[in-house]
């Protein structure tokens, strides 16, 4: 049991990072991670090492976060979401020509380079997390669940009560918002 507790302590920072991005509330993130770790301790005999411990704990946390959002009485309407996404959408059309291709001035620069090629991956991760915080909350949550956690679109749609089309629009806006932010906060800075 002590060995299992030590393993949980080792994955806690990454689990907490996930919770912070999802919840955008430091205290709530701490509480949710604590609940997930307690649940993992209670169920440690159910843990099968064929899946990674971090993956297993993140699955517990993801369920706790989903339950939290389901329990909220004041669910955000799609209209409110669209208002939140207005800042991203505002500049979106200006990035493409009439055929839907990137305009040269708006196309991502140095985007083909893998983040691993940069000498300090932690700085890139911090820049990405800061850019995620700049997105509307639910947009960041949906992006993180899909692109970082690998959650299926159908599951995200069920959790957020949105259609597949809405999910893909939100993901598209998130990618474009992150592209612009990372270009400014990371790629431009590293090209100097």
Overview of the molecule:
- With 192 residues, this protein is mostly helical.
- It contains nine helices and no strands.
- The longest helix is centred in the last third of the chain and has 28 residues, at 164-191.
- The model has no long low-confidence stretch (mean pLDDT 77).
Measured between the Cα atoms of the first and last residue, the distance is: 50 Å
In the predicted model, the low-confidence regions spanning at least 5 consecutive residues are none
User: How many discrete structural domains?
Assistant: 2
The string of secondary-structure elements, in order, is: HHHHHHHHH
Task: Outline the biggest β-sheet.
Answer: none
Mean pLDDT: 77
Count of individual beta strands = 0
Helix/strand class: mainly alpha
CATH class of the largest domain: Mainly Alpha
Beta-strand content estimate? under 5%
Total helical elements = 9
CATH superfamily of the largest domain: Winged helix-like DNA-binding domain superfamily/Winged helix DNA-binding domain
- What best-fitting shape do the alpha-carbon axes yield? globular
CATH structural architecture of the largest domain: Orthogonal Bundle
CATH topology of the largest domain: the name is: Arc Repressor Mutant, subunit A
Specify Rg, calculated over alpha carbons. Answer: 18 Å
Helical proportion? 55-70%
């Amino acid at each position: 049991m002590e060995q299992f507790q030590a393993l949980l302590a080792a994955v806690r920072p990454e689990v907490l990072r996930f919770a912070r991005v999802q919840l955008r509330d430091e205290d709530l993130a701490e509480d949710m991670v604590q609940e997930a770790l307690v649940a993992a301790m209670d169920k440690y005999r159910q843990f099968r090492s064929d899946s990674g411990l971090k993956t297993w704990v993140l699955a517990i946390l993801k369920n706790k976060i989903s339950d939290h959002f389901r329990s909220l009485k004041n669910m955000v309407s799609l209209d409110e979401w669209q208002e939140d996404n207005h800042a991203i959408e505002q500049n979106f059309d200006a990035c493409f020509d009439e055929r839907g291709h990137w305009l040269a001035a708006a196309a991502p620069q140095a985007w083909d380079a893998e983040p691993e090629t940069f000498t300090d991956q932690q700085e890139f991760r911090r820049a990405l997390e800061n850019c995620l915080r700049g997105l509307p909350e639910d947009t960041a949550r949906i992006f993180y669940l899909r692109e970082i956690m690998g959650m299926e679109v159908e599951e995200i749609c069920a959790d957020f009560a949105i259609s597949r089309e809405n999910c893909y629009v939100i993901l598209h806006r998130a990618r474009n918002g992150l592209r612009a932010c990372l270009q400014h906060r990371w790629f431009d800075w590293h090209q100097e």
